[in-house]
C-alpha cells in the first residue's frame, strides 16, 4: 500500500461522514436551499483565495520541477475557479458584489485556511503538501459520489460537474504522486506529521460542509 492509500484508509470514517452529510444529500437531490448554497459559495470563494496563496507557497518550496509546476498551476486554477465558477454562481443565486465582499470568513473557513497557512509557515514541505491534498482528493471523491445520485436537472449541476471532471481526478492523482514521493524520502517523524496534517485538513473539509449547512457564523 502506498503512503497515500494508508492515510486515505485512516480517514475512512471522516470521508463516510462527509459523503453522508445532509448538505451533500440535499445538494444531490436538488432540495438544498439557495440560502445554504449562497453561504457555502461565498465562504468557498474566501477559502479558494487563501488556498491559492498556500499553493503558491508550496510551489515556491517544492524541491522538484514537477512539484513547482503542479502547485503553481493549482494556484492559478484556484484563482480561475474563484473568478469563473463562483461568479457564475453568484449571478445564478443572486449574490451581489456587496454580499460577497462584505462577508467575513466563518470560524470553519478561517480555521481551515489558517491551518494551511500555519503548515506553510512553520512545518516541513512534506507536511504542507499532505495538508493540501484533502482539498483535491476529498472533492474528487465527493464529485464522483454525488454525480451518479444527483437528480437531473439539478440547480447545482455546474458545481457537481467541476469536481467530477476527469481533469480534476488527474490533478488529484498527480498531487498524490508528489505526496507519495515526499513520504518515501521522509523520516518516520515527518511521515507521522504528514498523516496528522492530512487528517486535520480532512476534518476541516467536514467542518466546512457542516458550517454551510448550519449557516454558522461567529458565536460572539
Ligand atoms: C473547502 C474546499 N475544499 C476543497 C475545494 C476543492 O477545490 C474547495 N473548492 N473548497
From TrEMBL:
Species of the source: Novosphingobium clariflavum
EC number(s) per entry: 3.5.99.2
General function of this protein: Catalyzes an amino-pyrimidine hydrolysis reaction at the C5' of the pyrimidine moiety of thiamine compounds, a reaction that is part of a thiamine salvage pathway.
Enzyme class: hydrolase
Catalytic activity line of the entry: 4-amino-5-aminomethyl-2-methylpyrimidine + H2O = 4-amino-5-hydroxymethyl-2-methylpyrimidine + NH4(+); thiamine + H2O = 5-(2-hydroxyethyl)-4-methylthiazole + 4-amino-5-hydroxymethyl-2-methylpyrimidine + H(+)
Gene3D superfamilies attached to this UniProt entry: Heme oxygenase-like
Keyword Hydrolase found: yes
UniProt KW Nucleotide-binding keyword: no
Similarity annotation: Belongs to the TenA family.
Pathways per UniProt: Cofactor biosynthesis; thiamine diphosphate biosynthesis
InterPro entries assigned: Haem_Oase-like_multi-hlx, Thiaminase-2/PQQC, Thiaminase_II, Thiamine_Salvage_TenA
Thiaminase-2/PQQC domain span: 9-213
GO molecular function, one term: thiaminase activity
Keywords assigned by UniProt, alphabetized: Hydrolase, Thiamine biosynthesis
Pfam families to which the protein is assigned, alphabetical: TENA_THI-4
Name by which UniProt lists this protein: Aminopyrimidine aminohydrolase
